[in-house]
Amino acid sequence: MGISTVTAARILDGQNKGKSGEENTLSFGGFPFTGLAKTYNVDAQTPDSAGTMTAMMSGIKTDAGVIGVDEDVVRSDCSTVAGNEVVTALELAEIKGLSTGVVSTARITHATPAATYAHAADRNWEDNSDMPAAAQNDCEDIASQLINFEKNLEQRYSGIDVNGIEVTFGGGRRHFLPKDSAYNSGDQVSSTEGDRTDGRHLINEWKTQYNNGVYVYNQSEFDGINTETTERVLGLFNESHMRYEADRSNDTAGEPSLSEMTQKAINILNNNDKGFFLMVESGRIDHAHHAGNAYGALNETIELARAVKTATENTNPEETLILVTADHGHVFTIAGYPKRGNPILGKVVGVNSTTPALANDGQPYTTVGYMNGLGFRDLGNETDSDVSYDDPADAGRKDLTSVDTTTSGYHQEALVPLS
Length: 419
Fold this sequence. Notes:
By secondary structure, the protein is an alpha/beta fold. It is 26% helix and 11% strand. A five-stranded parallel beta sheet has the order 3-4-2-1-5, sandwiched between helices. It has a three-stranded mixed beta sheet with strand order 6-7-10.
């Protein structure tokens, strides 16, 4: 969610409201302060979410690909974790007696949410099957760390007494279930939903640990949560990442939106008079950009803005600090001198013109595009950005004369072909 993403989403949101778009402001655009961050990792000029979110949660920059540990760790080397763990903002909140929550439209074990509660030598160690055999014996996978968060934190810092994370909403059920179809949830995509090869059923372990906790996995169960009486909730709404906002209606069991999860989380967490810490991630902005689908990324950003508006409306500004940021940007560009009000996802139409401008190769071109990636797709009304991965990269210039580039299934041209 770099500046180009925020700008394009702001314009699209305004155009969706019938305005020219440029004058529009997203909810967090009205905040009183704006800052910029240097996002490099200790070992990387272009960073990843694991190293950057660790920095945001701890104040300490670290290497790419590692979670909740400092730069002295060696990626994928389990033996280097002990003693190099950092303390996170969520852990500090727990120690202080605040309620805590983690919300994401990505897998809850993915890099950004994981960096609030986990400490791992590799961001990819989401369950035990993702780890080398040697590491499985000596290090704990990320999903297990979430379930054992309370115990692990109390062991790490002697003399503290915490009560664990109160609200967890996201995707990634597969990392909590045994690799046995008998444990499928009913809305799974794979024939066997679970990935764990150690036989552990982490959802049941969580239920045993917190017998007053509520586990939910679909929209109706989510809607049924009583926020005044529910002390603790675990919601895992998809086998992998949750669906894109534009694609959400296609989920068989139903998934809550990011703004719905934000409101529900706040209404549970604010029952604690001491206050709360909540991390909310619109994780699929990043994923749609990786897929080269600006429509998906911008609509995810607009939904994030709704979630921020929900947060401001459900908190007291005299008591609550709300920060909105990105952990890194993307290879997403805005260019071409289109006239004001030109559809941000459309082809460039210049000032004082009614027809698309032509590049030096005689072809029309879009305002937004990608420096690298999978490139051109013309998939019509497809709303799942990830279907772009079904085919190899198709980079370079295309004749867009008869292509509607504003549809949900259009994926912008990319210069350099990458996966």
